[in-house]
Automatic annotation (TrEMBL), chain A:
GO biological process: vesicle-mediated transport
Record gene name: CCZ1
Top-rank taxon: Eukaryota
CCZ1/INTU second Longin domain segment(s): 205-334
Residue span(s) of domain CCZ1/INTU/HSP4 first Longin: 8-134
Protein name (database record): Vacuolar fusion protein CCZ1
GO cellular component: Mon1-Ccz1 complex
PANTHER family recorded: VACUOLAR FUSION PROTEIN CCZ1 HOMOLOG-RELATED
Pfam families: Intu_longin_1 (PF19031), Intu_longin_2 (PF19032), Intu_longin_3 (PF19033)
InterPro entries: Ccz1, CCZ1/INTU/HSP4_longin_1, CCZ1/INTU/HSP4_longin_3, CCZ1/INTU_longin_2
Domain CCZ1/INTU/HPS4 third Longin: from-to ranges: 359-460
UniProtKB/TrEMBL annotation, chain B:
Naturally occurring in which organism (per UniProt): Sipha flava (yellow sugarcane aphid)
Record protein name field: Vacuolar fusion protein MON1 homolog
Function of the molecule: Plays an important role in membrane trafficking through the secretory apparatus.
GO annotation (BP), single: endosome to lysosome transport via multivesicular body sorting pathway
Domain FUZ/MON1/HPS1 first Longin: 68-190
Family: Belongs to the MON1/SAND family.
InterPro entries: FUZ/MON1/HPS1_longin_1, FUZ/MON1/HPS1_longin_2, FUZ/MON1/HPS1_longin_3, Mon1
A Pfam entry, by short name: Fuz_longin_2
Residues annotated as domain FUZ/MON1/HPS1 third Longin: 358-458
Residue ranges occupied by any FUZ/MON1/HPS1 second Longin domain in the UniProt entry: 230-328
GO cellular component terms attached to this protein's record: Mon1-Ccz1 complex
Gene: LOC112685770
Length: 472, 469
């Protein structure tokens, strides 16, 4: 039976902001839906505070993670001391034959809602907020709670509008990075190209290179890369496709008449933006934390595109952005990036052409938590989708939920393990974890013997993941 | 505080008290409770968190040390039962639980559970009482919930639901502990049972292993006597934790959870061994509204099997006593007592006899009969801790198999110290524990081989004949 998931509310609060019982509303920093009754907002938050306080009696070291009622699942995340993010989701079963007595009363199936998915979403959103706006405690101390409210509103309203939370499934738990498979020579070539940018332009602290939606190289740490990558995928790439056609009238184009091969991508959505002249458009300001001393430094993110590749350049805010810098960058990057991109295109196509295997009735997700690389056949990347047609079966919601169960077990119980599960529709769902590498497989085959399933999985691994070793 | 000895004495008294006395007791109690609880339930939870948690601190440091808590309170916030500690000292905690429940109820919803790291808190609202379970070992929610239902059933079994509702209808502030004195000990034992017994995990009973012809002879003997008695509904013959035989009246059947309650009552009450007893008991799954009357007695000095005869007629004591005497006599004549004794003393069937490579232990459940077989633990599971670990592995496996909305058929999982396989067909559920490095082929073969072997052994391990009269 299909399940319809709805987001009831999403709120962020800080208990420290309310001193008396009358000013309970002060605790609220962000609340969705905004038109909710004020008293209801305060009551909901009060309820969650009571739950948090109650659970401390039994566990004072870990923070409260979730709360279930007959109709809802509430997931809590405590990113900074006293700051809580809470999301409430409900699930109704869409049954074809409604019960005759109460046709309007939905049948709830909250057991189909899984905490890890929503916890992953909350964490990812918080980290993105931290990267694009900053640390909540710091913002509140440097300014005032109202300023933080404003920032949170800008950020979350935009995210809630653009993301369909109810459709989140297994795949959204990883926020993995899809790497472009390249041979060594091209890879070194790309790397030296990025190094030469950083060397030539003192202002550029870090660089990152993408080909379509795959990452080629990043000079950032893996967490930073993960966040910037997902930001680019979410806000830059879709925008780019949209204004590819209206490039001609771009004011940036007029300021920089020499842009022939490549172009700068500006006016990308961000909470904090910066410019030196409105003619050149705004660039996002991104906060990256220093891995060593936990402090945040802000950088301007300048994005340049040529052919199918984009270069992201992080420029310290101390350096001004000038038309001269833009022109120099354009001249330096344009042709080189275009050539590199064409080279990459050739190798990618060659690799894909040689990789025409027999289609297997199987789907897989591979995730390496060491470098956050993800490879999968569930959500296909643009680069690969062009030549490889996806398998012709869809993973059932049940199988996806079993995958979440497996991955949750992985994360909290076993350092190394292997699991195979046969579901009610006779699909096999398998998961393996070894050396921080995880692989999840769904087989749409009627197999009865465990060893046949195992052989099938091994063949798949050999075909798709080649040399990566998996403990058996 | 009453000492534990007094508890057990009180318990015996309570068991032998007629309902009429209980009822009159309820009516005689004067209204003297303060209004404290009302104020708790009216206060919406706006915790001035720091103050509250400070006052709790010392008390709850003790509570954190235990793995599993069970709390029972009335919907008016009166404490009824706590597994550890003293209810009176926990009043503020009970108040908070009630407040959490009632806030959720205000929005037409019911609080189910809270997750906090490894801590799981589960709420069950069975108006007029609320049960709360806290586990510190990330146990599955459904298992904790089932434990709470068992505790609830135990309370019903001593009071009946009708009476429980009536008590709280007349006096919302009633202190139920007045009527429960003595049954706390039964609840303690029941919780321990739910933590250790595979029957609880599998919703099934375990049968005493004996040749099927002996079992048939015993069942037949009981049946012949029972069928003569009007209003007798069920007859059970029990040896410790195992069932030897069941007979029942036409159209009625005994549910597993009710059998578990009876088993717990018998195994927790020493006095049944010395004298035949006549006890009112409510079987919540069978009929939560009224009492049945149980004639409980051990067959003979030289045969420690307990015969339980359940009737709806409270005047039947002497008839049942006579029937029991005849059953024992007849059983002695046709060597049934000897057969029972043999079965009790006999080494339980070992899994080693099946001779399956790599298989260490298993749970085997026949679905439609709700009966299971759990062979004795052998090496490497030779200590209590290791056995308990294995049981919690089974527990999470069983819960995973039966999770609502999933309906899984097979789970094969390699863990660090064992490989486990769950295998469900329409007839049986199998939970097997293998050596960690067992091959998949070997595991698949083990299922086939075991199924064949069980076909030969199942006659003595399970009760296939539950006759009606």
């Amino acid at each position: 039976m299909p399940t319809e998931v709805t987001v009831q509310n999403l709120y962020i609060f800080n208990s420290g902001l309310s001193k008396t019982e009358e000013d309970g509303a002060n605790k609220i920093l962000f609340y969705y839906p905004p038109h909710e009754d004020e008293n209801k907002k305060v009551l909901n938050i009060g309820h969650i505070e009571a739950i948090i306080c109650f659970t401390r009696n039994f566990n004072s070291t870990e923070s409260c993670e979730s709360l279930r009622t007959d109709k809802t699942l509430q997931v809590l995340y405590n990113p900074e001391p006293d700051f809580w993010m809470v999301i409430t989701v409900s699930a109704a079963c869409k049954s074809k034959s409604k019960s005759p007595e109460s046709p309007d009363e939905p049948v709830y199936c909250t057991y189909n809602l899984q905490e890890p998915i929503y916890l992953a979403v909350l964490k990812h959103w918080y980290q993105t907020f931290q990267m694009t706006v900053g640390n909540m405690t710091k913002i509140m101390n440097d300014n005032d709670p109202d300023y933080l409210r404003l920032m949170l509103n800008k950020f979350y309203n935009k995210y809630l509008l653009s993301v369909d939370l109810s459709s989140h499934t297994f795949m959204d738990m990883f926020q993995g990075i899809s790497f472009l498979p390249l041979d060594n020579v091209i890879h070194l070539y790309a790397q030296s190209f990025l190094n030469s940018i950083e060397n030539t332009f003192q202002q550029v602290n870090f660089t990152m290179l993408l080909y379509n939606d795959s990452l080629v190289w990043s000079g950032l740490s893996k967490r930073q890369t993960q966040l910037v990558y997902s930001y680019i995928l979410m806000w830059v790439l879709p925008e780019m496709v949209r204004d590819e056609n209206i490039v001609k009238g771009n004011s940036l184009q007029q300021c920089l008449p020499n842009q022939l091969v490549g172009r700068f991508i500006s006016n990308v959505w961000a909470v904090k933006t910066d410019d030196w002249s409105c003619d050149l458009g705004k660039v996002p300001v991104i906060l990256l934390n220093d891995e060593n001393d936990e402090t945040f430094k802000s950088y301007r993110l300048v994005i340049y595109k040529a052919h199918k590749s984009i270069v992201c350049m992080f420029i310290e805010t101390d350096y001004p952005l000038t038309a001269e810098l833009y022109n120099n960058l354009d001249q330096f990057l344009g042709t080189k990036l275009h050539l590199l991109s064409e080279k990459m295109k050739i190798t990618v196509e060659k690799a894909l052409a040689s990789k025409l295997y027999a289609e297997r009735p199987a789907k897989f997700v591979y995730f390496n938590s060491m470098n956050l690389a993800i490879k999968n056949s569930i959500k296909t990347s643009n680069t690969i989708a062009t030549t490889n047609k996806p398998s012709d079966f869809n993973i059932s919601p049940e199988s996806l939920r079993v995958l979440v169960d497996i991955s949750y077990q992985h994360s909290c119980i076993q350092p190394t393990c292997s699991i195979m599960i046969k579901t009610s529709n006779d699909n096999w769902v398998a998961g393996r974890l070894c050396n921080s590498r995880e692989i999840y497989i769904v087989l749409n085959q009627k197999l009865t013997k465990l060893n046949d399933v195992d052989t099938e999985i091994q063949n798949l691994c050999a075909q798709e993941l080649g040399t990566i070793f998996f403990y058996d | 505080m009453i000492s534990s000895e007094e508890y057990s004495e009180n318990m015996e008294e309570a068991q032998e008290t007629d309902i009429s006395i209980l009822v009159s007791d309820v009516n005689n109690i004067a209204i003297e409770e303060s209004e404290v609880n009302k104020s708790i339930s009216e206060n919406k939870p706006l915790p001035s968190s720091s103050e509250q948690s400070n006052s709790y601190e010392n008390l709850f440091d003790q509570l954190k040390g235990h793995n599993k808590h069970i709390f029972v309170l009335s919907t008016a916030g009166k404490p009824i039962y706590t597994r550890f500690g003293n209810e009176n000292q926990l009043a503020s905690l009970f108040g908070l639980m009630l407040a959490l429940m009632s806030v959720t109820q205000d929005s037409n919803d019911t609080l189910q559970s809270i997750c906090c790291g490894r801590t799981r808190i589960v709420f069950v609202n069975k108006d007029p009482i609320i049960l709360v379970g806290v586990s510190q070992r990330s146990e599955p929610y459904d298992q904790i919930k089932k434990q709470l239902i068992y505790v609830y059933n135990n309370i019903i079994s001593t009071l009946t639901l009708t009476q429980l509702k009536k008590i709280f209808l007349n006096r919302t502030n009633f202190d139920l502990r007045r009527l429960m004195s003595g049954s706390e000990r039964l609840i303690d034992k029941l919780i321990t049972f739910t933590e250790n017994d595979p029957g609880f995990l599998l919703d099934s009973i375990s049968c005493l292993q004996m040749p099927s012809n002996s079992r048939d002879k015993i069942t037949q003997t009981i049946l012949t006597e029972c069928s003569k008695i009007k209003n007798l509904v069920f007859g059970l013959l029990i040896a410790q934790k195992h069932i030897i035989s069941i007979v029942r009246m036409k159209k009625y059947s005994l549910q597993v959870s009710d059998i578990h309650l009876i088993l717990n009552l018998i195994n927790s009450t020493e006095s049944f061994k010395t004298a035949e007893s006549w006890t009112p008991i409510c079987l919540p799954t069978f009929d939560s509204s009224g009492y049945m009357h149980a004639h409980i007695s051990y067959l003979a000095e030289d045969c420690q099997a307990c015969l339980v005869l359940l009737t709806i007629d409270h005047d039947l004591f002497f008839t049942l006593s006579e029937a029991k005497r005849k059953i024992t006599e007849k059983m002695r004549r046709n060597d049934c007592l000897q057969a029972i004794n043999d079965a009790i003393i006999r080494q339980p069937l070992s899994l080693a006899r099946a001779n399956i490579l790599g298989l260490r232990h298993l749970l085997y459940k026949i679905k439609n009969r709700s009966q299971h077989w759990c062979p004795p633990f052998t090496l490497p599971y030779n200590t209590d801790t290791l056995q308990q670990n294995l049981m919690s592995v089974y527990c999470s496996l069983i819960s995973q198999m039966n999770f609502p909305g999933r309906n899984l058929k097979v789970i094969y999982q390699q863990l660090t110290s064992e490989t486990i396989v769950a295998w469900a067909t329409d007839e049986v559920e199998l939970y097997m524990c293998f050596e960690p490095m067992v091959s998949k082929e070997c595991a698949t073969n083990a299922v086939t081989k075991l199924t064949q072997w069980m076909k030969k052994e199942e006659d003595s391990l399970f009760i296939f004949n539950i006759p009606m009269f």
